[in-house]
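Hi team,

Filling in the usual template for the complex we talked about on Friday. All components are listed, including any nucleic acid strands or ligand strings, so the model treats them as one assembly.

SUBMITTER: L.P.
PURPOSE: interface mapping
COMPONENTS: two
RESIDUES: 675
SEQUENCES:
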Amino acid sequence: MDKLPLHIVRRPELDRVFGLLRDNAYTLIGPTRRDGVIQYSEIRSLADLPIGYSDRQAPGSYELVKSETPRCFGFVHGADSWKRFLFPPKRRVFGASRQAGPKTPFDIDDLRSPPPAYAFVGVRACEIAAIGILDKVIGSELLDPFYRQARDKMFVLAVNCIEPGGTCFCVSMNTGPRVTRSFDLCLTELGEEFGVEVGSERGAALFKQLTSRPATAAEKELFRLLLERASERMGRHLETEGLPELLRKSIESPRWQTIASRCLACGNCTMVCPTCFCYNVVDSTDLKCRKAERWRYWDSCFTLEFSYLGATSVRYEISSRYRQWMTHKLAWWHDQFGTSGCVGCGRCITWCPVGIDITAEAAGFRETAPPRAVPLTPQQQAMPS
Amino acid sequence: MIAVQDRASVVCHDSRPMVPVTATIVDIQEESSNTRTYMLQIDDPAMRSAYRFEPGQFNMVYVFGVGEAAISISSDPAHNEYLAHTIRHVGSVTRAIARMKVGDKLGLRGPFGHGWPISRCSGRDILMVAGGIGLAPIRPLIYAILANRGQFGRVVLMYGGRSPSDLLYQKELAAWRDDGQMDLLVSVDYSIAQWDGPVGVVTDLIKRLRIRPDRTSVMVCGPRMMNRHVTWQLLRLRVAPDQLFISLERNMRCGVGRCGHCQYGPKFVCKDGPVFSYESIREVFGKEEI
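RESULT (copied from the run log):
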């Protein structure tokens, strides 16, 4: 820790950072207080941050409250995530136009406005991990040029979490609370001042223009203690050892029905998840059928339409849809992308209207060994597996 | 990225996989009361001649302003001038196609996915089992096998349809039966007076056949229950799990493993399939509502 390259800047320097980023044509997006929650939106100065607010999160419950300490980042994330900027919930895929009826050829344009250069302010370790996962899923220029470009341009002004939320479990997922990668500058609130770490050349270029001093040994120790304490105060814990195998073995467990008896299939968990990537497309035309468009929208595996095939849906039961979501996130994601799909941010727990807790449900599968599958099929009866 | 590598075979718009190219309907064949085969020609001559597909791959067929449907390519892979798509008119997109005529324009993206692994089956007996419209993705396989007939042992097609009038490609079925290059067993669920073939489910046909399990590769495409029972029956006859291939169907929006709709356990049907060896999906195959 003694070698920790930590610098100290005074709080007003943050306004300088914002100004310098704006001078470099960045669009600043940071936490703001809107409708009683933390929402990421455009900010201009320190005054736009929800200073002195803190959040209380629990399964199915979220509350933003005035806190005694006037910290700039005294809350964790709300329902919103940076995914909304990199992979917008609604986006035009292409437009098609033709001069006359169905026999006339049509032209297709996929003109896309390039994304702005975003500077994300207050990005937490779990959220950086989430962006890292999205990189593996949609990071190729071919699959989504908008994502790739936005991703390459973005400036990450990260913040270390020193006060985790009530539904946080980043320690379990090994994604936090300390920011260790993929950032330009990282802030840690040390009283009235910020500890600053530099994570990239872009970050270093900006940092050079700030008034700073090296951190003292005491400040470095405080930094260490704050992050250590944060690690110990996680609101939730998820045991990941052997979890993918456990879920794979539990595909036919009756537990899914137990969870489904509470699940409303509302899809909130998928909408707030910073790594859920599924989308739907919607086509439309004008009344003359001369101009058509295709739009892409975030989709959720909890809708009946998601698995629609022929005349019905493959995942008709809510239990199958919850199973798809959770098994995908915690097991099959490993096969597909070489990582878990969960970063331990806890959004799906907080924003579930009935408070279903993915960590508790996963632990539930451990409590009872998955019941022995009843041999239903001739294959199971006849085939040695 | 994995996805890019997987899409190396996409010819239409290599650089814009999400954008269709236009194609013209050059011929429409009536197959049954609700199914027709559309011959499509890609409008751009350069793209048309560069287009290659493997038997078992599919295209996303786009109707202006209505949407897209994943349709397997059912013509001979040796010819790319015209691409056949056999379409049952059941959904909003396919019903819009039903209203279209020769000369009308459609959009096309593809080909997508991995087809039947014919190259791995050289020297082996081939058993193809198709149900209903499941014969469509098998037809290019038949063309490819017949074009290199000497490379394979015994070749059998089992085909089950709802009724005699629901059977696809009837002229070709007759020709395949007559030329003796492969054995053809066709059954129907419901008979009519003129039908003199077997009546029942396609799985019953398997009992009529003595297969050599150690040297037979099986290609299956049909409704979910048919796939399931055919697979189990053949596994019980000791066909190797890695020589049993099943083509699956799912809701699809993109074709390149991005939209998430076609997930089947750890697989994306569009890019990892639609043809899978039983071995590669045994963990979820036959499980309800996966």
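MY TAKE: Chain A has a mean pLDDT of 93. Residues 228 and 256 of chain A are 36 Å apart (CA to CA).

Thanks, L.
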